[in-house]
Every structure is written in C-alpha cells, then in structure tokens.
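JOB MANIFEST
job_type = single_chain_structure
chain_count = 1
residues = 203
[input]
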Amino acid sequence: MLFEDTYRTIAKPAEGTFKDRGSKFIAFAYPITSEGDIKAIVNKLKAEHTKANHHCWAMRLSPDRSVFRVNDDGEPSGTAGRPILNALLSHNLTNIIIVVVRYFGGTLLGVPGLINAYKNAAEEAIKVSNIIEKVVTDVYSIRFDYALMNEVMRVVKQEGLEVLRQLSDERCELHVGVRKSHVERVLPLFHLLHGVEIKWMPI
C-alpha cells in the first residue's frame, strides 16, 4: 500500500498544566477538521485567559499530516509553537490544535527553559487525551433502480460500507463511505451490477 489510510487524532478536548519557576503553562488540546476552526478556539481562550501573557499554538491537519502551522505569540522565535508541534509529531497526531496559555511568573526561563516548558505542557495535555484512530474514506454516490436494491445492499453489507445517506425518488441513491485502501476492490463490484451508476463525491 502506497499510503496509510488511518490516522491518529483525539476524540475530545483535553487540558494539561506544566509549571516552572513561577510561570504556569496550561495546554488546551482540541480536535479540529479545518483551518477555519483555529480562530474561534484561540479567541475563546484569549477571552477566558485575559491576564495570560501568551497564547501560543501549533496545529496539524489532514490524514497525511502534511498541513501544519505554529504561532509563538510574542515568545522568542522557535521557543513555543515549534516545541508544541514537536509533541504532536512525536505522538503522530493530526487534525488537532494545542494552545498553550502562559502566565508569566516573574523569572525569565531562557530559550531552553521555554522550549522545555511548552513541550512539556503539550505532552501533559496529550497524556490525558483520548487518542483514537480514524480511517480515511472516500464518499461515493450510487444510483440505481429500486429493483436492484437487494443486490446493491448485498455488496454494501459484504464490504462493510458505511451508508451515510439514503435518498429515494424515481431512482434510489445511496451515499457510502469506502475505505481508501479498499476502493479498487469495491468499485468493480458495483460496476458488475447492470444499471448502477457510481460516482465519487468531494466531501
């Protein structure tokens, strides 16, 4: 197989805390599905933690883990967002953002101290997270005459496909999720059924 069709993410938000020489670092981990989720999460935490000195974050997106962004929010470059990202990398997590809220304790931690604190805070949030594995699926629309319902459903059941939506008018239409690594095996089974139209749907 040329690609992995599963990825690791978190099931629900989690929180972890790390303290060093009076400074408090609170890490908030959230599952996300697009870059559009970031702003609302960061703004919410800024509104809840108005007295915090920094709200630094890192995120990773997409099943192939290719999309990432970091933000040091005023900390010295490379001392906050990057260590948070490194925690995500070391646990192979994606579709996640971790925001670390820092309350300054009066003692400068220096570059190594900051890197250590942001990484450890992120690790604390990951430690208490419910990590789950998700499967990458493609969605297909299958259209057919009602007379073919039994044959179509037999393939759906046999291949363990997830039925996402069922529509009926003159013809029947199913939207099904097909595991990416099974597509080449599953599609020909529908093509064998005379009168069945199948097409890929962008999500």
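[summary]
The longest strand covers residues 23-31.
The chain has two domains: 6-133, 136-201.
exit_status = 0
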